[in-house]
Amino acid sequence: xxxxxxxxxxxxxxxxxxxxxxxxxxxxxxxxxxxxxxxxxxxxxxxxxxxxxxxxxxxxxxxxxxxxxxxxxxxxxxxxxxxxxxxxxxxxxxxxxxxxxxxxxxxxxxxxxxxxxxxxxxxxxxxxxxxxxxxxxxxxxxxxxxxxxxxxxxxxxxxxxxxxxxxxxxxxxxxxxxxxxxxxxxxxxxxxxxxxxxxxxxxxxxxxxxxxxxxxxxxxxxxxxxxxxxxxxxxxxxxxxxxxxxxxxxxxxxxxxxxxxxxxxxxxxxxxxxxxxxxxxxxxxxxxxxxxxxxxxxxxxxxxxxxxxxxxxxxxxxxxxxxxxxxxxxxxxxxxxxxxxxxxxxxxxxxxxxxxxxxxxxxxxxxxxxxxxxxxxxxxxxxxxxxxxxxxxxxxxxxxxxxxxxxxxxxxxxxxxxxxxxx
Length: 423
Hints:
about 425 residues; mainly alpha; Citrate Synthase, domain 1; CATH 1.10.230.10; 2 domains; three-stranded antiparallel beta sheet
């Protein structure tokens, strides 16, 4: 079968470029020789139409509401798998056998306890520092804890050890940030415990299997999401030869931005505002529909998914289970349920396919668990870590060149320096 060719005409000359085809027939024009052959670059602000890499990790189709990790639909993984198994899948491209999983879990469990240096740095940081800033400091501190294992030329075994380290340390880092902000002492990990049960224990001092199961699901739903802002950041940092800890710290900083990882925080802030102002859900919906009001409905619709967010249907079930299990009585959560019901029965939102997304429900669960709003994005980083690590490893394995986007210069032309008066 002949390869599809795209012809570009510039100044009376024709140039041909091959089309790269993905597993599901996605197509990209390979313009890697465009600059050398024509002197032109493509212009695509935000890279919305630019494929910067080939990846075998995650496939999503926003129009059809499809999300798959290595070919496995997200609903199957959320129902049948656990978070560490999904970590293995993203890293290896295949689900583990029983013996492979046991070995992987044991390797991660070896690093449940944080290095004393990381704990010391955490204690020294200002209590009022944002949790995402604290997490970035802790991730970068890992570079100092394992200084001999950071070189790009390090062995494959060493690189895998760093994978186990960052995945193993994450529960303690997130739990300790929570406890520091709450003024609580740090708890030692339960070294042979299930990954999420250990996390819930280190955060709350209690073991709750229902909540741990919901946490497994939440983390699975956030584990990877193709070439988003933070993932692309990890890959471009890694392309310079930077080590794993520094690369994922960069991804964490990218996720910190309110346009990326702060959506579930905005949901709770919206619900708090509705409560404070004494609005009913119906009144808020009416204001959202009135464009002159500038009132927004947070947690509905998605930048990528044009119909529905496949993750939202899954996490909604667990939101109901968690609220029932905890016997929560919270007027803000009552507003959330009423708001959801009102919006889903309104043709304005149904016709525009503005359905609740994963951020709407994850924010509700985090609030029910007593996690502060400013910790929500840290929980997002917790879930996204295996995706960042897998993308970093894939980039290195593919020996991709250093990332170096081009630009169109729009500044002043060459000019002569003139000394100003009095100089």
